[in-house]
User: Which sequence fits this backbone?
């Protein structure tokens, strides 16, 4: 089996080529797509080869692992919190993260704004939307989105840049068909346009191609990079 660094380099090249090809097909500039390497299940050994390949945006979903990776990360690394937010974590997240992609609860928005102000930090936030109305997924319902966006925009330390969603699953827990996934992503794009938000955090290892086709600006890709 190739060494870890070689695997990461080869996998990144493949993913970037697919992103570029999809962008060309849909008249997009690949420079408008940010690849976030989801390192939540990895060890710090992946950080150097990722940085060497130009990937400094890293996705984490637990504060303890975020602290471990943050202590080992190369200079210039940018951490994105992509997991379900817990209120008690917010003061710890504020100093570490450049962005939080999974904000949805009104109380969490207020508490994060205060934590960032206390830490003298201004961070990007994405409001997570449960487009598929899946009871197992977090996120605000589309009908409540405008209220959450307005609340977040009132927080001086929060820069509301976009929306986030996760693609739906089929009834058996498998990945949904591509048409269903694209409808979900297209719906999020429409919601963002109505809220005048420029960024769309959508698309993971199994569905980043339809996400790019529907306008994703931030891809959260994990297992595809490390297999």
Assistant:
């Amino acid at each position: 089996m190739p060494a870890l660094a070689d695997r990461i380099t080869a996998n990144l090249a493949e993913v970037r080529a697919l992103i570029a090809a999809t962008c060309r097909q849909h008249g997009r500039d690949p420079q408008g797509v940010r690849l976030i390497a989801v390192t939540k299940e990895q060890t710090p050994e992946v950080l150097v080869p990722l940085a060497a390949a130009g990937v400094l945006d890293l996705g984490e979903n637990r504060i303890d692992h975020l602290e471990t990776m943050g202590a080992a990360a190369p200079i210039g690394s940018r951490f994105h919190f992509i997991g379900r937010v817990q209120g008690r974590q917010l003061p710890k997240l504020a100093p570490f993260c450049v962005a939080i992609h999974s904000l949805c609860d009104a109380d969490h928005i207020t508490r994060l704004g205060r934590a960032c102000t206390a830490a003298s930090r201004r961070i990007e936030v994405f409001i997570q939307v449960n487009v598929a109305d899946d009871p197992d997924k977090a996120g605000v319902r589309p009908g409540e989105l405008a209220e959450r966006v307005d609340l977040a925009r009132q927080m001086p330390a929060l820069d509301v840049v976009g929306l986030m969603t996760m693609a739906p699953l089929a009834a058996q827990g498998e990945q949904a068909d591509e048409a269903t996934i694209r409808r979900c992503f297209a719906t999020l794009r429409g919601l963002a346009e109505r809220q005048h938000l420029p960024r769309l955090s959508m698309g993971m290892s199994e569905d980043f191609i339809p996400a790019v086709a529907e306008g994703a600006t931030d891809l959260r890709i994990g297992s595809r990079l490390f297999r």
Notes: The mean pLDDT is 94. DSSP finds nine helices and eight strands in the chain. The CA atoms of residues 135 and 141 lie 11 Å apart.
